[in-house]
Write a structure and sequence with these properties.
By secondary structure, the chain is an alpha/beta fold. The chain contains 11 helices and 12 strands. The strands form 2 sheets. The chain has a 6-stranded parallel sheet. It has a 6-stranded mixed sheet with strand order 7-8-9-10-12-11, sandwiched between helices. Bound molecules: manganese (II) ion. The site of manganese (II) ion has 6 residues, from loops.
Length: 327
């Protein structure tokens, strides 16, 4: 999206919010920091505009994000039973409509849809689409929206945006950490976001199940002969024995990826009847292209897919595909 088009989309999105009332705000299944922070930030914007809204997600808010301002208002899909569904839907951080999960079956067919996202694979599924593929996070787009609408910053708004930037840039370390991201972060600190508190809570704190799972996964760390591909697997039994939840798997895939000499790090998560795969590239390989071959997607350096097969077969298939990409 070029700059004039982006400016127009910002105005269209603001008009969508100002001229309508009664919204459902939803992000993707298994929400990450940007998904939750974006949901909260849209809630904050709608409050500032005096609108009625419901915040929801397919899954419960992961424990580590529950302190974010507004996160206590996000309802899980199963809590929506019996709720009259709003006529307007706002999707944040979702590359396609199916990413919101089963909630889409509860949305009225005639609902108007505002799609706000930064994933390059976004298929513009909205009635109005506010997309910026070089944004580091969806919250970066919401920052532009708040600035364009000339809303008055509060600490809560600043902390939501900062939290999404912090998590989607891995603590301002990934390649998406542009000068603009740092300018925005500086502004948010000025608006009273507590950067230290947010970094502590979102990046440094870990759960015991995460560490127990890491211990098991590292014990079974595997490599190709040339050591350019490394992977770890988490079996259904590992999850059971450690009491780990989906959110406790966060960051595990970075261990194989971070090893010196490794080009692609993989994490295989065994589930009932399928295997979820996370792919991370050190830079030479476009892992989103590999993920797409298996029906998944994502970014050049970070992608994911699901394979309906046994753990052993999934490992063989994906490692082979990565080997070919490295050739
Ligand atoms: Mn994101």
């Amino acid at each position: 999206m070029d700059q004039p088009q982006y400016s127009r989309s910002l105005s269209d999105a603001i008009r969508f919010m100002r001229e309508r009332d009664d919204f459902l705000v939803v992000s993707h299944v298994q929400p990450d920091g940007d998904a939750i922070a974006s949901t909260c930030a849209v809630g904050w914007i709608l409050s500032a505009l005096g609108k009625r809204f419901v915040l929801a997600n397919e899954d419960p808010v992961p424990e580590k994000f529950r302190f974010l301002p507004g996160a206590d208002r996000i309802r899980a899909a199963e809590e929506l039973a019996g709720t009259a569904m709003p006529a307007n839907l706002i999707c944040v951080d979702c590359a396609d409509y199916a990413r919101i999960g089963s909630i889409r079956h509860k949305v009225p067919g005639e609902a108007a849809l505002l799609n706000i996202d930064h994933h390059p694979t976004n298929d513009a599924f909205g009635t109005v689409n506010l997309l910026k593929f070089d944004a580091a996070a969806t919250v970066q787009i919401l920052y532009d929206l708040i600035e364009t609408a000339e809303l008055r910053w509060t600490r809560d708004a600043a902390e939501c945006i900062y939290a999404g930037l912090l998590t989607d840039t891995g603590g301002f370390r990934y390649a998406n950490t542009t000068p603009q991201v740092m300018r925005i972060a500086a502004h948010l600190l000025q608006e009273q976001a507590d950067g230290h508190k947010l970094a502590q809570a979102l990046l440094e704190r870990t759960s015991l199940p995460h560490v127990l799972l890491l211990k098991k996964a590292l014990a079974a760390l595997s490599f190709t002969d040339d050591r350019r591909i490394a992977w770890m697997s988490v079996t259904a039994q590992d999850l059971q024995e450690t009491g780990a939840l989906e959110e406790d798997l966060d960051g595990l895939v970075n261990y194989p990826r971070n090893i010196h000499g490794v080009e692609v790090g993989l994490l295989f998560k065994e589930r009932a009847g399928h295997v979820k795969v996370s792919l991370r590239s050190a830079g030479k390989v476009d892992v989103s292209a590999i993920a797409q071959r298996f029906g998944g997607g994502g970014h050049v350096l970070a992608a994911g897919c699901t394979i309906e097969d046994s753990l052993a077969s999934a490992v063989r298939l994906v490692v082979e595909a990565v080997k070919q990409a490295l050739r």
